[in-house]
Every structure is written in C-alpha cells, then in structure tokens.
Specification:
Length: 219
C-alpha cells in the first residue's frame, strides 16, 4: 500500500464514520463535526510529516548509491567554506560567478553519468531518461544564467547566485539523476515546499556562529 492509497482509506473511513455517527446520534451532530474536523486535521498532519520524512531521505540518498559521493562531498565542502567564510553577509558578484560554475560542472557530470549508463546498456531511451536530461539541461542553463548575471552585475544574482541555492539544487537533483529518487510531482512538491526550511535553518545557524577573523580584519 502506497501513501496515496493510505490517504484514500483515511478519507473513506472519515466519510463512513461521520455518516453512521449522524444517523445514530442526531443530537450529537456538533460533536460529530468536531471529530470529522479532527480526523481531517490529523490526516493533513500525517501527510505533512510523511513528506518531510521523504524530503530527509533525499539527503540520505547517497548511502544507496555511493558514486554520488564523488560529486556531493565536494559540493558540501565548498558550501561549508563559502557559506560561513565568504557569504556570511551575502554573496558577491565574484562568488556568484564561481557558484554558477559549480552548477555547470555538476550538470556536466550528470550528462556523463547518463551517457555512460546508456552506452553500457543500463539505461534505455524512455520518458524518464528525457526528464533527467531536461533536469541536467536546466541546471546547466541555471549556472550559465548566474554567471552572466554576475558578469553583467544584475541584482538578482544576490538571491539566486548564493551558494545556498546552488547547493540545495545539486543535493536535491543529483539523487534523481542517479535514479535513487523518483522524479515525480510528489518529489518536486517536497523539494519546493521544504526549501524555506533548508534556507532558514542555515540562516539561523549562520547568525549564531562567531564572526570569522577575516571579516574582523577587513572591517
């Protein structure tokens, strides 16, 4: 039984329970409505927590395919030093250009991986294959756009060119390209829905950590 079938059973149970309750206890209609609202709320909470757990599983995906460590370990290391030693108070045009280059290099590695699987006969031309190619092309285009925006000194680069954005995109979509996480609406919803959580947890941690000596010397 998958997650969606489970939710369907919950909704069916709520409908049958509410109908039986009203027919046998007409004087307790208000109480029945309260129980029905509670069951609806609990099902939404369960769905939210299930999606949150699924989102966390994307971070742990390299454990199922260790080859991803070759690309994700450098991404995480670069994120740590850039986040806390160069972009503690925001990115710069130079950093944004470098971050865009990281996205390009990662997307090239995705192309390499897909091509290798195809030539070795482990991957066939399917809709899923084209979607993964589309992901790689989109991230490549994103990296090019960030670099061009940084060169042309566009204000938008201060937002989409941060290492936090680049890292999140690479960490989320690398398991999809490596066929550990399925590319579907549920996955995309989780990636989009919990991006603010990823962003602000790092933001809070960034603000409570001591200021690097580099900033103190420059000021």
């Amino acid at each position: 039984m998958n997650f969606y079938n489970f939710l369907f059973l919950i909704e069916t149970f709520k409908l049958e329970f509410s109908t039986d309750f009203y027919s046998s206890h007409p004087k307790n209609k208000q109480r029945g409505e309260t129980i029905s609202l509670f069951s609806i709320l609990s099902s939404w909470i369960f769905a939210f927590l299930s999606m949150l757990a699924y989102w966390f599983s994307i971070f742990a995906a390299p454990l199922k395919e260790p080859e991803m460590f070759w690309i994700l370990i450098p991404v995480w290391i670069n994120w740590f030093f850039t986040e806390f030693f160069q972009e503690k108070y925001g990115t710069s045009f130079g950093n944004a250009v470098s971050n865009g280059a990281i996205a390009i290099l990662a997307s090239i590695d995705w192309f390499r991986y897909l091509l290798r699987l195809y030539t070795d006969g482990y991957l066939s031309i399917t809709i899923g294959f084209f979607f993964k190619l589309l992901v790689a092309i989109s991230v490549f285009a994103y990296g090019v756009f960030v670099i061009m925006a940084g060169i042309k000194i566009k204000i938008i680069v201060f937002y989409i060119g941060k290492i936090r954005w680049v890292t999140y995109i690479l960490v989320m979509f690398t398991p999809i390209v490596y066929n550990v996480i399925k590319l579907n609406l549920y996955t995309l919803t989780a990636i989009i829905l919990f991006f603010p959580l990823f962003y602000w947890v790092i933001e809070v941690f960034d603000r409570i950590t001591p200021e690097p000596k580099l900033y103190k010397q420059s000021s």
